[in-house]
């Protein structure tokens, strides 16, 4: 089992920044990929970004490219999502998830999920 705990969400004005954290514990995969997804009310879960823990390679949704940065801290077993230039349309619950192997944009490819952290961007 892998446990994931997200934090760092909150209320911010448009143009502001937030940094989300995802702390992992338990039986971590040998070569995991960690993804961030988001879900707005009434909408499906949407891919945001992903990172390969071993290689450090990253992938971003077009909607956040250039504004969001995903990174990891090996010592803290933590993945971060730095979100800059936030827009009202970024408002959603943000979830981190982990899978073994390559990066994926498909939510059903991930095995373990955190409980989520709410991000609200006011206009």
Concise overview:
It contains no helices and eleven strands. With 123 residues, it is mainly β.
In percent, how helical is the residue content?
Answer: under 10%
- Order of helical and strand elements: EEEEEEEEEEE
Largest sheet: 7 strands, mixed
Specify the oligomeric state.
single chain
Distance between the termini: 40 Å
What is the average per-residue confidence, as pLDDT, rounded to a whole number? 95
The computed structural class is: mainly beta
- Low-pLDDT parts are none
Proportion of strand residues = over 45%
Radius of gyration: 13 Å
- Individual helix count: 0
How many runs of DSSP E, i.e. beta strands? 11
Overall geometry:
globular
Can you describe this structure?
The chain has 123 residues and is mainly β. It is 0% helix and 54% strand. It is built from no helices and 11 strands. It has strands at residues 2-7, 10-13, 18-26, 32-39, 46-52, 58-60, 68-73, 78-83, 92-100, 112-113, 117-122. Strands 2, 4, 5, 6, 9, 10 and 11 form a 7-stranded mixed beta sheet that branches. The relative contact order is 0.32. The mean pLDDT is 95.
Outline the fold blueprint.
Elements: E1 2-7, E2 10-13, E3 18-26, E4 32-39, E5 46-52, E6 58-60, E7 68-73, E8 78-83, E9 92-100, E10 112-113, E11 117-122
């Amino acid at each position: 089992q892998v446990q994931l705990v997200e934090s760092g969400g909150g209320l911010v004005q448009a143009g502001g920044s937030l940094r989300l954290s995802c702390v992992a514990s338990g039986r971590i995969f040998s070569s995991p990929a960690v993804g961030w997804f988001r879900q707005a009310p009434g909408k499906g879960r949407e891919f945001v970004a992903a990172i390969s823990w071993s290689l450090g390679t990253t992938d971003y949704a077009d909607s956040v490219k250039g504004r969001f940065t995903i990174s990891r801290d090996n010592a803290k077993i933590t993945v971060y999502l730095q979100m800059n230039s936030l827009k009202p349309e970024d408002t959603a619950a943000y979830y981190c998830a982990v899978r073994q192997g390559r990066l994926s944009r498909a939510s059903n490819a991930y095995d373990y999920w955190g409980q989520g952290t709410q991000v609200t961007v006011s206009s």
